[in-house]
Amino acid sequence: MAAYYYFASTLTTLFFDGALPLSHADFLENARRFVSKQDMELLDLAKLRAPEPHTAEARKAENSLLLGSYFRWERALRNELARLRAVRLKKQVEEYFRESEPEWNGQRVAGTVFALENPLEAELLLEKERWQCISMLEVNQFFTIEFLVAYALKLQIIERIKHFKKELGETNFNSLYQEVFHIAEETTVLEK
């Protein structure tokens, strides 16, 4: 496994509630100068959302212990969120499930996030839990591709958080709520 001493040592330490030292796109651009082609493929795959199971991307991600483990966690989280939403809406969940192995921490996080009524708090908690999952997976990874994969994922979390705007979120939520409420009223009238 290649070691990226120089590149890794130039990177600023990331903190969940800290500043964004560089964009994810800039990180990838810089990485291309120092990282092997094979390892660069892993960095390009390092996204917060897991690829569909049994795709070429999913198989390549398994070349990274960290990325493969993170994607299993993410799928379990999303499956549990889909199940909880389906129960609440009295819908079938099968079309939203993605094949995955059980991952109990991801399921636990989904339950905790789903229980929050404030959407902004739920999103922030979700990102904090993602951060903690990645941090646990990167323990004892220094100057390796696994460290760089974790760094790429964490940059994306910080970027995502920086885009949260409470006022805009409330406006969008209220608009969406009114739209859903209106559709539900129309459906109820049609069913009668």
What does this structure look like?
With about 190 residues, the protein is mainly α. Helices cover about 70% and strands about 0% of the residues. The protein is built from 9 helices and no strands. The protein has helices at about 5-10, 25-35, 35-45, 55-60, 65-90, 105-115, 120-135, 145-160, 165-190. The termini are far apart. The model has no long low-confidence stretch (mean pLDDT about 85).
Overall form: globular
Largest sheet: none
End-to-end C-alpha gap: 66 Å
Helical percentage: 55-70%
Assign the structural class, choosing from mainly alpha, mainly beta, alpha/beta, alpha+beta, or little secondary structure. mainly alpha
What percent of residues are in strands?
under 5%
Overall strand count: 0
Radius of gyration: 19 Å
Mean pLDDT over all positions: 87
Order of helices and strands: HHHHHHHHH
Number of helices: 9
Q: Spans of 5+ residues with little confidence (pLDDT < 50)?
A: none
Topology of this protein?
Blueprint: H1 5-9, H2 24-34, H3 37-45, H4 56-61, H5 65-89, H6 104-115, H7 119-137, H8 145-162, H9 166-191
Summarize the structure.
By secondary structure, this protein is mainly alpha-helical. The protein contains nine helices and no strands.
